[in-house]
Design goal:
The chain is 29% helix and 18% strand. Helix 4 packs across helix 5. The relative contact order is 0.17.
Length: 168
């Protein structure tokens, strides 16, 4: 992963659950690109067609609550989302996102200071999130090096493959 992520913002509120990210009626699919066609469709009809590779999702508290399915972070990845920044994450979504290689950052002060279409720049190493549109900066907790290595590998499975090949 690049040490800096810059993208246009999609903003959602508190308690966005996994059924809102990818509705249960689409869980027969497992490929990220297939899931992406239905990502956020029940709360934002424009997301699946208008999201661009590199865009960033900003959520409020408890983002990704609900079921433990990995389909939700996979749908976001398949949509081209480069990162999710939220006030807080449901623990199982947090872990699933890391497992599939989706960068997520908890940034408690950001949600009220960003609007859809703003541009964020995230320094992954330091955890600094800057709203390039307004100039405001916010601190998030950066990942420890071992989790960055897992995310940079493309998730837990790819990380394990690298380790088994002696590459990590």
């Amino acid at each position: 992963m690049e040490e800096t992520i810059t993208g246009s913002v999609w903003v959602y509120g508190d308690n966005v659950d996994t059924d809102a990210i990818i509705p249960a009626r689409h869980l027969t699919m497992v490929e990220p690109k297939d899931l992406a066609r239905h990502c956020m469709e029940d709360i934002d009809e424009s997301f699946a067609t208008d999201v661009k590779p590199g865009d960033i999702v900003v959520g409020g508290a408890n983002f990704g609550c609900g079921s433990s399915r990995e389909h939700a972070p996979l749908a976001l990845l398949g949509s081209g989302v480069a990162a999710v920044v939220a006030t807080s994450f449901a623990r199982i979504f947090y872990r699933n996102a890391i497992n599939v290689g989706l960068p997520i950052l908890e940034c408690p002060d950001l949600a009220g200071h960003v609007k859809r279409g703003n541009v964020l720049r995230i320094d992954v190493d330091s955890g600094i999130v800057k709203n390039e549109t307004t100039g405001e900066e916010f601190a998030s907790e950066p990942f420890p090096p071992f989790l960055m290595d897992l995310i940079n590998s493309g998730g837990l499975v790819e990380y394990a493959k690298r380790r088994l090949r002696g590459e990590a």
